[in-house]
Amino acid sequence: MTLETVSTSKAHGGTLEVYKHASAATGTEMTFSVFVPPQAQVGEGAKLPMLFYLSGLTCTHANVTDKGEYRRLCAELGLVFVAPDTSPRGEGVADDPAGAYDFGLGAGFYVNATQAPFAAHYRMWDYIAQELPALVAAHFPVDPARMGITGHSMGGHGALTLGLTFPETFKSLSAFAPIVAPGQVPWGHKALGGYLGEDKALWRAHDATALVEDGKRPAGAILIDQGEADSFLAEQLRPHLFAQACEKAGVDLTLRMQPGYDHSYNFISTFMDDHLRWHAERL
Ligand SMILES: N[C@@H](CCC(=O)N[C@@H](CS)C(=O)NCC(=O)O)C(=O)O
Description:
Layout: E1 4-11, E2 14-22, E3 29-36, E4 48-54, H1 62-67, H2 71-77, E5 80-84, H3 124-139, E6 142-151, H4 154-165, E7 172-176, H5 186-196, H6 208-213, E8 222-227, H7 233-237, H8 239-249, E9 253-258, H9 265-282
């Protein structure tokens, strides 16, 4: 698969690179950023651990790339960091009929849609679970046996559901302010209903709390940070639903409620170092 370079720029001794490529999963062009730390240059054939970061509603690869403040520590730890887009885009890609921010473009919810007109391109589950790991392993100095996943909000939902479903691919798992129970909150009802249809039994495969209840297990322990001043906490995020399911199932979850922090990248960048270390220690 061919990658087209959008940009490349030296940072912290490594390089921040942005690429476009034709995606077999979505049938569209997809864009992602990758930070390659300086350890990649130490000898030919370096194989480094890597972390996928899945973004939230309205985001592209650029939000965390610009505001996540991950490069300095990734350079120190020798961790490759990959940030994909949140939905397919381009001509012929359906959007929310009313142009709402929480469905359609920028809101793929990391599922394979089954409902028209979204089924044609909204296949972010396959893109993140299969296509992107293979593509990254083929083109960058990464060890495919040492990949982790994290994400924010809708991207935290993606990280948890993918990490629980594919523990052999995603060996370490964390999330920032994730949607943990889409089957029980308005964002999830709209997205899962719109992409997967109204049969709620089918939603359980894309609901982290239901996945744990149904017996799925991550590769190891899970870290979640959640701001207590997050305006989405009570209605959309509800992390205690996931904590209860994990406790009952014996899943090792560290849920840290962070006083005063909101839903923004000020919160994410504050705790980014902790998440990078969490993954580096496990990969
Ligand atoms: N009310 C917000 C909701 C979307 C939102 O808060 N998105 C979060 C993820 S759920 C985000 O990361 N936004 C982009 C940013 O802060 O850079 C909007 O319409 O933009």
